[in-house]
Amino acid sequence: MGGYGDVQMLNEDGTRMDGRRPDELRKIEIEAGVVPVADGSARVQWGSNLAIAAVYGPMEAHPRKISRQDRCVLDVRYNMAPFSVTDRIRPGFNRRSREIGKVTANALESVVQLELYPRSKIRVEIEILTAEAGTRCCGITAAAVALADAGIPMRDLLVSVASGKINDTVVLDLDKPEDNYGQADLPVGILPNSGELAFLQMDGDLSVEEYDLAMVYNMKATKEIHELQKAALAARYENRGEQ
Ligand code: ADP
């Protein structure tokens, strides 16, 4: 988020550099059940972003100090592969990956019925194989499908998506140049059936009107992504039936 309002990223007809309308998502593909050894898994290709999420558990909570008497804990890791961007990333966790892991865990806690598994933990691993802005949204959307694929009881699915601002115009789902030179970014987590917010982060500034429009775009996109999540889980269920 550079805040370079003077870098022109909109065409004269109001479309964006990659041809999308302001309220248009990048192309998204979702597949459930891609990691055979995991209890549940999903792949989300979102523009050039590619995330794999794998879920293991519920299992006994170890180490003991993380265990909770009355509920399950979510042990979430978000990691960008060293080859996921053109500059090689140093392997291992850093401040950013820990922050995204924490945001993801908090958001998933809004939907997973943790009280059903006291003293247990569920491991959620998110690996970003290619990154081109919006990887937290891609990873969270994948993790929700992976949890459902693992048969973990949930109050709702969870969709994550972002809107932002470029050239004083609110747009949905910023790509990398838009993220670099844009003026604001508003990633959110939304429970698609209830419309409740599971998390909201904001980078840059939006007026109240711009915020309202960004949330209209986010809500509309949530419905589209939710359909893809459901289709991925239904396809997985049908394939299981054939095995
Ligand atoms: P998000 O991926 O959720 O948008 P950020 O806003 O922190 O999260 O990152 C935006 C983008 O910047 C990432 O998707 C990735 O393409 C790039 N990026 C993030 N961290 C690094 C890094 N350490 N090295 C190179 N590029 C990075």
Number of helices: 4
| Rg (C-alpha, Å) | 18 Å
Assign the CATH class: Alpha Beta
Portion of residues in helices? 25-40%
Number of strands: 10
Q: How would you describe the shape? A: globular
Indicate the CATH architecture.
2-Layer Sandwich
Q: Could you name the CATH topology?
A: Ribosomal Protein S5, domain 2
Largest sheet: 5 strands, mixed
Average of the residue pLDDT scores: 95
Taken together, the total number of domains comes to 1
The percent range for strand residues is: 25-35%
CATH superfamily, by name, is GHMP Kinase, N-terminal domain
Unreliable segments of 5+ consecutive residues: none
Element string (H = helix, E = strand)? EEEEHEHEEHEEEH
The N- to C-terminal Cα distance equals 47 Å
Biggest sheet, spatial arrangement of strands = 1-2-3-5-4
Question: Which secondary-structure class do the elements indicate?
Answer: alpha+beta
List cofactors, ions and other ligands: adenosine-5'-diphosphate
